[in-house]
Amino acid sequence: MLRSRLVVAPFLHRKTYSSAFANLATGRASNLHSRMSLVANRIDSGTVLRACPACVKSDAKTVGRAWWHVQHQLPGCLVCLKHSEPLLEVPVQRRALILPSQINLQHNEILMNVDVQLTSLVHDVWRNSTSYLAYQHITSRYRERLVETGFASHIGAIRQDKLRHALRAYWATSASPTVQQLLLDSGYPETLFRAKRAQFHPLKHLLLIGLLWHSWREFCEYKPCECVTPECAGVNALNEGETDADILYLLQQGKSLRAVSEQCKRSVIYVKKLALQNNIPVKTRAKRIFGADIALIVGLLKDGVKTQQIANEVDYSVGTIEQVLSQHPGLVKQRHQMRFNAQCHKHQSCILQTLAEHPEYYRGDFQRECRASYSWLFKHDKDWLYIVMPDAVPRSRRWVI
Questions:
Q1: CA 96 to CA 296: how far, in whole Å?
Q2: Percentage helix, strand, coil, to 5, in the chain?
Q3: pTM score > 0.70 for this model?
Q4: CA separation for the pair 299, 251 (Å, rounded)
Q5: Dist CA 117 CA 144 (whole Å)
Q6: DSSP code at position 65
Q7: Cα–Cα distance between 234 and 227 in angstroms, integer?
Q8: Hey, what long-range contacts does 339-344 have (CB within 8 A, 24 or more apart)?
């Protein structure tokens, strides 16, 4: 915890950091990982120790014994910046003393530029964390830089898909499993901007900083150009004239009232008023639903069609479809049962397919290979699961096998 405290510090709210550090100083550190969201981010930390082969030899030559260097254990470090060599990893053992001299110093790994860059970022944050920025200033810098680089519009709407693909392409060659795990997270980096009160693992910030600035020094010294103002970045109130022009442009492109309202931070009524004033045709939904349409909707609901799909097909809102659905309580239960049966069939097919491909599997093998399907069936259809599963191995033979 001590080794990563200074790396985490710039990316925590000031109050959270002060409280966590006070608890750490007094020995009350039982819930620090959860308070700093290190558990929620699901990133393994502290499971391995890392050492540089050149540092091990140098330490043994100068002082007679090698030791674990703190800077090598920082989250995200894969390279020794002093010797430009990849760090070697050894799993942590709770009941055994591991020394750097016990590691096999032979390696065939190839250094990647992005891994060197990430290690440099972590080291710079670690050394310069005494002058860290306030957390709200960090997120505002993100938005300003995204506008400059084209990952956000001038009204502050972030192009999440474009940014996600750019992040994955930039860090694709990284040899770090943790980095690759983060890049596969469908909610990253979108959650950095939407969950304003949440804390995030420092690697999530450093990957974005590496893409946008390449170094911690450039990030700290960054000043937005004149064309990017807090108003343009979406921090404060939007400029009235520019917002109206954006609304009219989006409406002329065929965007719906609700889509324009959400993107430009204006009410649906305001957007509709602008459209009528500028003679832009607006597509409105019918305010009444007739018998023939009700029969069609009920038929589609009985077939298990999703409400959004029905709304698009019959040109009604989703709320109208759900209102019709609420008038038929039996149909609600029927659709629940249909969804349950579909899930059941999907998981049963997975188990049966694995059983056909691997008839020699034991129950534990099915739990490992088909964990999601096995767990779902164990909870909802245990009788069927135990019928198709192979017999349990007798206790007397479990250790033999």
A1: 70
A2: 60, 5, 40
A3: no
A4: 34
A5: 22
A6: S
A7: 13
A8: 339/304, 340/380, 342/304, 343/376, 343/380, 344/377, 344/380, 344/381
Nearest to 106 by CA among 134, 122, 92, 85: 85
- pLDDT tens-digit readout, 18-52: 777 777 777 776 666 666 655 555 566 667 888 99
pLDDT in tens, 58-76: 998 998 888 889 888 888 8
Helical H segments across 73-215, by residue range: 113-127, 135-149, 160-170, 177-183, 190-194, 202-212
C-alpha closest to that of 211 among 126, 112, 121: 121
Mean pLDDT of the chain: 80
Q: How far is CA 108 from the centre of its chain?
A: 32
Please say whether the beta carbons of 251 and 283 come within 8 A. no
Nearest residue to 163 via CA among 150, 174, 175: 150
